[in-house]
Design goal:
heterodimer; A: about 110 residues; mainly beta; 7-stranded mixed β-sheet; 11 strands; globular; B: about 120 residues; 6-stranded mixed β-sheet; 4-stranded antiparallel β-sheet; 12 strands
Chain lengths: ~110, ~120
Amino acid sequence: DAGITQSPRHKVTETGTPVTLRCHQTENHRYMYWYRQDPGHGLRLIHYSYGVKDTDKGEVSDGYSVSRSKTEDFLLTLESATSSQTSVYFCAISESDSGSYEQYFGPGTRLTVT
Amino acid sequence: AQSVTQPDIHITVSEGASLELRCNYSYGATPYLFWYVQSPGQGLQLLLKYFSGDTLVQGIKGFEAEFKRSQSSFNLRKPSVHWSDAAEYFCAVAGLNTNAGKSTFGDGTTLTVKP
């Protein structure tokens, strides 16, 4: 299994509070991604990174920001959490430079915003 | 833009029966195609992938998939389903034209296995 961890695994927070989710990899892969998974919507890309300090928006980036100061860590921040951000968040990594493009996923973080 | 359609939201099969999950994709060039499986409470795991060459690819857990360019399809099959195969299955597409290797995922098909 690819070495990907996410923390915390579960979090309950109140509307309006900031929340940071962490993804940590030990594979030294270049690309990292944050997705949210909601019933009926599959996986939707929030933000992704193609290197240290290089990030870009995905299809559902409003209300989220990211940072990547080291190859191994990719942080997702909800500046002011809303109930619509209640979801399961997955981090994934990819070594697309090898031409393979498959992604390896972390175990997920279940976030509840009350 | 690339897209993936999984027409079946939910499929139920009996244990020991054969399985086929459908996937149709839209992509302007040669696609990289994937099937992932997600067990309850877990992340996604790669089942198999197609890049080029033989259009019938074998994956883990006895799964296979066939790439049909003329039909823009990449259907997943298994000859005999086990109760442990109950999970959600996602088809995904990526490619050389995709920035940062981003994949586009279908909405998933939930498989229920009857005893």
